[in-house]
Amino acid sequence: MKKILVPCDFSDPAVQAFKFAVDIANQSNGEIILLNVIELPVMHDTVLMPTLNFEQAFLSDMKVNAENNFNKMKTKWAKDGPKVSSFVEYGPITTTINQFVEDKKVDLIVMGTKGASGFKEFLVGSNTEKIVRWSDVPVISVKKSTKGSSIKNIVFPNALRADEETLTMKVKDLQAFFKATLHVVYFNTPANFRKDVDTKEKLQAFAKRYMLKNYTLNVYNDLSEEAGLANFSREVGADIIAMATHGRRGLNHLMSGSIAEDVVNHLDCSIWTYKTK
Q1: Which has more pLDDT, 53 or 40?
Q2: Cα distance between residue 113 and residue 5, in whole Å
């Protein structure tokens, strides 16, 4: 967590994400990069020849306004804190952020979100949900004020797959960084049921294989994985949920959805996600 990107539209969730990133950077001796993305208005003169139509003065004013807001945030929340740099870029939000991550060699994104629901979620989703789906680096989604020092309980949903070694090692690093208890949980659902005795045996083998410390092993029964995750997280007082996302796109994403993206949209606690192959 040495180079942390905070995409910022200056909303309250974005400010909360920045404050959380400051806490993390102070602990890791890292730096923060603030990024404001300005989407250019597009006029389609024809189907084949879209034309950008914008006023340079208007874009310049937006950039100056963003820089002024950045300076206020730095002064108020990071005056004596970590190194903070800020940038304004023009383009589509998701692709611009992903390219920026690659160019600046970012290793963590901390992003505020208001979530999305209903028809809006089905058609568009939140920008954070899109970043969660596509990002090649871990993303922490923040909805409310959270201090790094308050992270004491991490919930780690586990499907007990044999091919998630990289994910598990990254979650262990996350746990070690926050010095938190790791609650490993398998969700039993009517659609994906297995006997508790078999699941507990596999969970114990998992903990032994990865030499887990300061952890609990849990089997939780619910009607769906998302419902189980919400209910279990409330019961153990989760401060952050650490989970994989599989980056489904296009029609496959619309038809199948993603539990990680649904959780980002619907739960209030912070969510750490990492895209697996």
Answers
A1: 40
A2: 15
CATH architecture of structural domain 1-145: 3-Layer(aba) Sandwich (3.40)
CA of residue 220 relative to chain centroid, distance: 24
Residue in 22, 92, 264 with CA at minimum distance from that of residue 4: 22
Amino acid at 117: S
In terms of average pLDDT, the best of 8-17, 39-48, 208-217 is 208-217
* Range among 184-198, 209-223, 248-262 with highest mean pLDDT value: 209-223
CA 259, chain centre distance (Å): 13
The pLDDT score that the predictor gives to residue 250 is: 41
CB 219 within 8 Å of CB 185: yes
Q: What is the pTM of this model?
A: 0.85
Give buried/exposed letters for 212-237 (b at 16+ CB in 10 A, else e): beebebbbbebeebbebbbebbeebe
d(Cα 80, Cα 61) in Å, to the nearest integer?
Answer: 29
The order of strands in the sheet holding 139-142 is 83-90, 31-38, 3-7, 108-112, 139-142, 270-275, 240-245, 153-157, 181-188, 215-221
DSSP state of 112: E
**In the chain, where are the structural domains located?**
1-145
Which of 68, 70, 79 is CA-nearest to residue 34?
70
d(CA 8, CA 12): 10
pLDDT at 123 over 50: no
